[in-house]
Design goal:
The complex is a heterodimer. By secondary structure, chain A is an alpha/beta fold. Chain A is built from 18 helices and 9 strands. Chain A has helices at 7-13, 18-31, 39-48, 64-70, 77-84, 98-111, 140-148, 159-163, 165-168, 179-182, 198-211, 224-227, 231-234, 238-242, 253-256, 275-278, 330-351, 357-363; strands at residues 53-58, 86-90, 117-121, 124-125, 134-135, 138-139, 153-157, 176-177, 188-191. Chain A has a 5-stranded parallel sheet, sandwiched between helices. A two-stranded antiparallel ribbon of chain A has the order 4-8. A two-stranded antiparallel ribbon of chain A has the order 5-6. In chain A, helix 2 packs across helix 3, helix 4 crosses helix 11 and helix 5 packs across helix 11 (198-211). The longest helix of chain A has 22 residues, at 330-351. Chain B is globular and about 65 Å long. By secondary structure, chain B is an alpha+beta fold. In chain B, a hairpin with a 5-residue loop joins strand 3 and strand 4. In chain B, helix 1 crosses helix 2 (57-65). Chain B has helices spanning 21-40, 57-65, 120-123, 126-139, and strands at residues 44-47, 71-75, 79-84, 90-96, 102-109. A 5-stranded antiparallel sheet of chain B has the order 1-5-4-3-2. Chain B has one domain (4-139): Ribosomal Protein S8, Chain: A, domain 1, CATH 3.30.1370. The chains are: A alpha/beta, B alpha+beta. Chain A binds chain B through residues 16-20, 22-24, 26-27, 29-31, 33, 35-37, 73-77, 80, 234-239, 258, 276-278, 281-285, 289, and chain B through 2-4, 21-22, 44-47, 49-55, 57, 74, 76-77, 80, 93, 95, 97-99, 101-106, 108, 114-115, 119-122.
Amino acid sequence: MADNETLGEQLRRQGISRRSFLKFCAATTSLMALPPTMVSAVAAALEKARRPSVIWLSFQECTGCTESLTRSHSPTLESLIFGAISLDYHHTLQACAGHFAEHLRTEVIDKHPGEYLVLVDGSIPTRDDGVYSTIAGMTNVQILEETAAQAAAVIAVGTCAAFGGLPHADPNPTGAVPVSDIITDKPIINVSGCPPIPTVITGVLAHYLTFGGIPELDELGRPLMFYGDSIHDRCYRRPFYDKGLFAKTFDDAGARDGWCLYELGCKGPTTHNACATVKWNEGTSFPIESGHPCLGCSEPDFWDAGSFYNPLSAPIGDSSDWAAPAIAAGAAAGAALGLYGRRHKADAEARREPLTARDLEDKS
Amino acid sequence: MNGLQDITVTVEEGAVGEPSAQVLAIASEIAGQLEAWLATGETASIDLRSLPMAPGDYQALKALLGEGEVSARLEALGPSDIYETAVPGVWWLKHRNANDEVMAELIEITDCPGILRTQAEDLSSAPGQLRERMQKATVEP
């Protein structure tokens, strides 16, 4: 695609019919979680869209976020989106290495100041001058600061980049911090999840490509279109919660009948993500549909929130510590738990014990 | 491996039971949109991927709406199956990619889904395309 060619011109040059384009727009609109009535607006915007350069930086991470994206349906909408952006630098996917790879990164910065996107997965180590993760002789902090300085926006992909994630978990030996602790003068979109749903990653990119700006964000910097509702609010098992029907163990009659997993530790009420509607593996299912409680992986400090199998109303710590607001149910409980969680986090972290297989057995 | 169809596990689909409250809620929304269309002429559509569905709800909704007289298959960036349900004016659209994976699934409340119509952008080049085909057919019989 020529630098100045619009997406519409590119597709016509490739002989893509108008129907195919409209189908692409219908899928993109669905991907962006916009109402289907927006298809014509999306078509008009995409027709004129020009592809932005993208630099993808990987720091302290497990490559799960890239796995999530590249293992998504291929070749499909995601690949079309990636055909519509110019992914100029990606540690894991790029063929070149060494000085040439770094040259590509600085070339994008020099050629497209103020226009390119920076995608980051992984948290950034800051302890001991950031020596715990270096690339091409630069610390992660230095690379991020240099790359983001001229960027249009930064997209923090995954809970590590958005909130610190696992490297940030107690005892945080590398002093890991999220992107937002380093970059404070650029728009940052947090696409949290461990990993994020692939269509959510591409949905955010599609939004930028289509409308040329960042979507509306929640108080944690996450796009409202995907993180606006809690898992609990959109869960198909919610009617069981409302009726007070809970699975007590993983193999009781309630579990087999698909009752609510709240008492088995489900973090759905305090977790905001699109799993319950967008789902995983080509829309096949999501953890709760497969019989497992939500771990809350798209929320800050989910790894330090106690056992995945303790119900929200019984957090780690002495039960005598537990304040009265915890008795409140549903969304109210979520808000109360948030307050409780912050107040008792340090205390809980000190008493935290690793999860063992016995935890699971005790629950079953 | 390119998709779920490569995994040799078959998902068993149970018998379609009575529609759940969620299915009836979607059906009520469709009924409301049909009434609004009759009253104001405004068509509507529902993105099925934006709705929380329990296992079996999808099949129950499909069974509730039934199949009507018209079905069409579109080949554009992969196949799309489009049919009018047994309820006139309610269309079910399933867009797939070249790997047969679902890209979008919609219910449209309209007299004919827009994507089935001949597109004005394609129509402008139609006479030239036909003349070119005529020329090719005569030069290269």
